[in-house]
Amino acid sequence: MSSEIPMRVAVVGATGFQGGAVARLLAERHHRVRALTRRPAADRPPLPGAFFLGGDLGRPADVRRLFEGTTHAFVTMPLVYGVDRVEAYARNIAEAALEAGTVRLVFNSNTRIPLGPTDVPAFETRRLAEWVLRDSGVPLVVIRPPVYLDNLFSPWNGPSLVDDGVLAYPLPASTRTAWLSHRGLAEAALAALTREGLDGRTFDIGGGRALTGGELAAAFARGLGRAVRYEELDPAAFERGLAELLGPETAAGVAGIYHFMASGADPLLMADDDGVSTEVLALDPPPVEEWVSRQPWQVWSTDPSPSR
């Protein structure tokens, strides 16, 4: 179907960064968006055009209400890594989608997933969710992103980058990584929802040319107009810092991806996709330096001097 034909889309994860970016793009393109949240109205992010329902993914009746009257769905799981809980969420979503007659469900796995089994919950719970959704028979497209550029526009990266020109991230400097913005994810999701002949496909969506840490720093230097150097951040230190913001359980789940990448077990996991998403989903993200130049980096500066 054309992306111009109005859809009614159930968006799971619309109050998060990834799902929120998708919900915003859908609303911009005049599609109707329904979202489920446990947050009170005063604590929800601004999403013009989205209709929020109070509820919980763990309650089947709430998920069925979310899907009522919708034609399509986009799903990003919350930052939850317990096997039983993720499986229950996926089954509730699958059953609601089947009952609603969902034309297509696009599942965002949050991350690339290695071919073989691992002991990393961030990979294995998403692999499980994919399996549950696919096994249910709901028309499904899976998109697996690499690493988000928006992770770098954050309170744990911004200050050292703006004030000291240090880009610190828990990926080995030699690891080639296809960086993607949340907006790029949203564009891939819209294509996955609307393009014909994609049911059953899985895409390792890319962000253009894969970059080493040094190449990423050089792109940031061009975007910022100043010298930038890449610094490998110890995944354990990253996890400790994340725990202060998200709690130890969630931090361990997220950091598991970076512990795995630091092990060197699959150094190409986050690399580019050889142009598949560009060809099939028409994903054409701008160069990293262009994305960098658009961000209001000065909000992270700790230097009060006017020259900053």
Automatic annotation (TrEMBL):
Lineage start: Bacteria, Bacillati, Actinomycetota, Actinomycetes, Kitasatosporales
Gene3D superfamilies referenced in this protein's UniProt entry, alphabetically: NAD(P)-binding Rossmann-like Domain (3.40.50.720)
Protein family: Belongs to the NmrA-type oxidoreductase family.
Protein name: NmrA-like domain-containing protein
Pfam families: NmrA
Annotated NmrA-like domain residues: 8-240
Keywords, alphabetical: NADP
